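Weekly structure sync, notes
Attendees: PL (lead), two postdocs, one rotation student
Agenda item 3: pending single-chain targets
PL asked that the sequence for the first pending target be pasted directly into the notes so everyone works from the same version. It is reproduced below exactly as submitted, 316 residues in total.
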Amino acid sequence: MMVDTNGFVVFSGNSNPLLAKKICDYLGVPVGEAKVKTFSDGEIQIEIDENVRSKDVFIVQPTCKPVNNNLVELLLMLDAFKRSSAGRITAVIPYYGYARQDKKVAPRVPISAKLVADMLEVAGANRIITMDLHAGQIQGFFNIPVDNLYASLVQIEQIRKKFGNNLVIVSPDAGGAERARAFAKRLQADLAVVDKRRDAPNQARAMAVIGSVAGKIAIILDDMVDTAGTLIEAADAIIKNGAIEVHSCCAHAVLSGTAVDKIDDSKFKTLAVTDSIPLSKKAMACKKIKVQSIAEMFGEAIIRSYKGDSVTSLFV
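Predicted structure, written out during the meeting:
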């Protein structure tokens, strides 16, 4: 893709340099020159090795594991560019860490997603580009523009090619019903919801299936897969209700703990994820896990943001 490269530059932290490289390959620009190091005591050092004065700067840095290190890297990079007189600084955060802590679920707990938003703004972000926020309302935590992209843009086309019309899109909980409804509408598929009760953090128990899945190919849609407990419980409930087979589409492959082993032993046929988070060697070796790149989508969002074109039209 030929782009005027004089006015903008794309940089990367250490969280997902491969995705940043793919984005830059799509745009036809090199990854910006910067040193992101760690001192022996754990402090992070940032040094920008090229002139960014008055330029549009895009920093690709998902705040995935190790979340705190990657978040601090991003904050320090934002500050470095602000002090280097960059024209506009956009934090490109394909996976927004702390997004699940978006409200008070108990007395005397923080709203961590809001605190992270405040830190990003104070550090120097003028704009945010992210994908599949755990809750769309997190956009309201910012006082700067936020473009929330959707992995469905790359996932829907694959589903159309792979499966026929006998589909039902399933949300693993009530909170994801709106996302699943939009997905089902674009695929002209049926919709179902699993009634989930969570007994403790990272522990879920699926209960009833609301909607008909009998005799259909079920695709469970979620924004992320962490321990995989929610998805596996949902898959079991769907199979018990007569589905022919179960697949899943998730934007963010967090895959913590023994998640990959659980997926290997589960009733899933496939689990489609994106490269918003770099996968471990074990996850890459799992035959059920299929990775789809979001590089072109983010590259297109970056160039549209730079030119002042509509990002929303990506989804029309």
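Discussion points:
- The chain has a mean pLDDT of 92.
- The radius of gyration is 20 Å.
Action: rotation student to compare against the earlier draft before next sync.
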